[in-house]
Amino acid sequence: MNSPNQEKNLGILASKWDWVKGKMVNAAKTTKKIGTDDPRRVIHAMKVGLTLTLVSLFYYFRPLYDSFGESAICAILTVVVVFEFTVGGTLSKSLNRGGATVLGAAIGIGAKSLAAAGGERGEPVIRGFLVFIITGAATYTRFLPIVKRKYDYGGQIFIVTFSLVAVSGYRVNHILQMSHQRLATVLMGGAACILISIFVCPVWAGRDLHNLVAENIEKLADFLD
């Protein structure tokens, strides 16, 4: 026979198991409901997985990896952060990231060349000053309404790219090659997102808006009747 303590422990374990089981069932129901309400969400998840698989070829194939090296990870990160549910959202984020990467890398290389003129002792001081001024100015411009509304993500990418190029260039000798590799992989990752988003079961925000307006008008007509 089980002692009272054993029966108490078994009861606690059974209640815990019922709680965990209930949470798992609720999670499964919620997951199913999300896909049932809009099957395009399932397709979107598959599209992201497909795109990540394609850009992973930079690592799987030796010739591609030899050409881009560790910078190939930028293509994967680009897919993760720019692939949106709609075509317009994906296109907007891809252009923001691509343009900000080009601008940040160009200004970072310019800052490196300018700082190099200060000599061995003056270069770190000039680099630090330029990083402070440029990143501070870029951060401040993100508060402007038009930038906040349309280019906030691009501003973040510009700050990250500029800082990486300007700071790492102090220790890395082949900064131009590294910048070229990162820029190429970012553009390829963005291009892959755009192509998959447009040609594989595209989702257009304008069509959703049209359907939503029509549905609301029908509801208003029913209410007035």
UniProtKB/TrEMBL annotation:
One Pfam family it belongs to: ALMT
PANTHER family per the UniProt record, alphabetical: ALUMINUM-ACTIVATED MALATE TRANSPORTER 10
Protein name as catalogued: Aluminum-activated malate transporter
Major localization listed first in the record, in broad terms: membrane
Protein family: Belongs to the aromatic acid exporter (TC 2.A.85) family.
Membrane association type: Multi-pass membrane protein
GO biological process: malate transport; monoatomic ion transmembrane transport
Localisation: Membrane
Organism: Erythranthe guttata
Swiss-Prot/TrEMBL keywords: Ion channel, Ion transport, Membrane, Transmembrane, Transmembrane helix, Transport
Signal sequence bounds: none
Keyword Lipid biosynthesis set for record: no
